[in-house]
Each structure stands twice: as structure tokens, then as C-alpha cells.
Amino acid sequence: MNLKLTVVAGLLIASVFPAFSLYTGLNEGVGLPEEEMAMKAALSFVREGPTYSFDGIAGTLTVIGIDVLESLPVQYVISISFDSRHAGYGDRTGQVLAQVITHHTAVVKIVNRKVVSAVLDGKWDELNQREISSGDGKPSNIVLSPESASDVAIRYVLPIQDEDGFAWKGSVSYAGSVTEISFRLLN
């Protein structure tokens, strides 16, 4: 009887461990904190981006800071530093390059586990592969949440005289669309 009991117990224990390991494998990445997932997404983006891929020095990719913005959805701003073998940004194939080790700092913004912004050294938009203009006289594109856009519109409306009295009218752009906001002062 003891032999049967030992064999059954052994089979039971042997069958539980593989089932448990299968269950834990199915949940890979689920138990990770959002901050860690954001950090991994940012590191992956920089590592696979044209600037680091072109001539980034292996082993220099380092997370130097993580900021969590109090917003909905939550935004993670991850600062990453790395060194490259040449000056410049992006894929520089076919260009004459200065042979100098260049230190870069990337600031990557993650929202809902997706990269929405990536800027190198405050000069290069790594996401769109273009230089960031500085003071060229053109208005900058600022993306605001609908709530913030309404607050800005209320604070900075333009007074306009109409036939019945005064009305205030403003135009606010957010997330690629324009919303007209009008207020009327009643006499």
C-alpha cells in the first residue's frame, strides 16, 4: 500500500511542476510594473533607432533617469545616454564623418507602452528623423490634452466686438484637430 501511495504522490508532484511552469510562461511581461515596461520600450527604441544602430558603442547605453508625469494616460519620460563613434544623428551612410566619440542623451516619452517622442541632445527628433528647429520664427507645434486646451483658450481668448455687445472667440488645436471655443458676454 505504501508503494502505491508513494507512486501516486510522486506522479502528482511531477505533473504539478510542468503545469505551473507553463502557467507562469503564459504571463510573461504581465507582472512587470508599467515603469519597467516603459523603460524597456525606450531602451529598445534607442537601441534600434538609426543613430545608435549606425555607430552606437555597445555597452554605453544607460538609463540615467525616469520621470512619471501625472497625467491620464500616464506618461513616462526616460532619459538614456550612449556614445557613438562619429558626430551627427541618424543613418549617416555616405557622409564624410568626423572620427570623434560623441556622447548623446536621448529623452524618450512613452504613453500606453508606445514611443510618442524621442529627442537626442535637444537637437534631433529621432522619431521623425529630422532636426529640431530653433527660433526660426515659426510657431511651435504643442500638443495639449483637451482639458489643457480649454484652460488655455479660456485664459487667452481674443475680445471681438459684435453687434449685440462683446463676444470672445478663440481657436485651440489639440491632437491634430482644431476646436472653436466661443464665449458671449451678456449685458
Q: How would you explain this protein's 3D organization?
A:
- With 187 residues, the protein is of the alpha+beta class.
- The chain has three domains: 1-31; 34-131, no CATH class; 146-184, no CATH class.
- It contains four helices and nine strands; from the N terminus they run H-H-H-E-E-E-E-E-E-H-E-E-E.
- It has helices spanning 2-26, 34-48, 50-55, 146-155, and strands at 62-69, 75-84, 102-111, 114-120, 124-125, 130-131, 158-162, 165-174, 177-184.
- The strands form two sheets. The protein has a six-stranded antiparallel β-sheet with strand order 1-2-3-4-5-6. A three-stranded antiparallel β-sheet has the order 7-8-9, covered by helices on one side.
- The longest helix has 25 residues, at 2-26.
- 13% of the residues are buried.
- Residues 20-28, 157-161 and 168-187 have low confidence and may be disordered.
Shape: elongated
Percentage of residues assigned to helices:
25-40%
Sheet with the most strands, sense and barrel status: 6 strands, antiparallel
Overall domain count: 3
